[in-house]
Each structure stands twice: as structure tokens, then as C-alpha cells.
Amino acid sequence: MTSSCCGPAVTPEPRPDIDVDDLAALCKAIGHPARLQLLRHLIKHGECYFGSLADVLPLAASTISKHVSILKEAGLIEGSSDLQRVCYCVRPDRLVQLKAMIGAL
């Protein structure tokens, strides 16, 4: 008698196609606790100047800047210049895409 640790095979429902490269890039972008904290802070507060973001985590400003750049490259956040400061905010459309792709796995 053989036993299976996974139980009987179930045929999954068809899922919509997803861009696996895009999903991987998004997962990589949120794959660091500091970036998740920065993203959550922006979701909660709507928008934030870089100086305020630097206060979110006990990291050097240069490290936070690198994390912000990775989130921007993934399209999860965007920044706009206001005189000599940059204001960052979340791109809600991109969060919706991320949630949809994860839901389609």
C-alpha cells in the first residue's frame, strides 16, 4: 500500500496567464523587510518626502535611497520633485497588478 503525503491529485481551475518576469521583479522588489516597511508606510500615509522616509527605519539615508530606487524601478512607487525635495507616493494601479498576479498563481 502506498501513501501520498499530498493526498489525491486535484485538477486546478485554469488561471489567467501572468507575466512571470514582471511578477518576479515585483516579488524581488518587496522581498526585503526594509522595502516592505517603506511601502507600507507610503500606503498608510499617502505621500512622503524623502526626509520623512529616512525616519521610518534606522538605516543610513544612502541605504534607504537604494531601497526607494528598487521600489521605483519596479513601478511600485513614484517620486516628484518639489523645489529641492522629492515627494514619493505609491502607484495604486501597480499594487492592484501585483495582487492580481499573486492571486492568479
From TrEMBL:
**A UniProt-annotated Pfam family:** HTH_20
Q: Which InterPro entries match?
A: ArsR-like_HTH, HTH_ArsR_DNA-bd_dom, HTH_MetalResp_TranReg, WH-like_DNA-bd_sf, WH_DNA-bd_sf
Residue ranges constituting the HTH arsR-type domain according to the UniProt record: 15-105
Q: Which residues cross the membrane?
A: none
> What are the UniProt keywords, alphabetically?
DNA-binding, Transcription, Transcription regulation
- Write down the superkingdom of origin: Bacteria
Gene3D superfamilies listed in its UniProt record: Winged helix-like DNA-binding domain superfamily/Winged helix DNA-binding domain
Q: Which PROSITE patterns match?
A: HTH_ARSR_2
Q: Which PANTHER family match?
A: REGULATORY PROTEIN ARSR (PTHR33154:SF15), TRANSCRIPTIONAL REGULATOR, ARSR FAMILY (PTHR33154)
Q: What is this protein called?
A: Transcriptional regulator
What organism is listed for this UniProt entry? Massilia varians
Taxonomic lineage from the root:
Bacteria, Pseudomonadati, Pseudomonadota, Betaproteobacteria, Burkholderiales
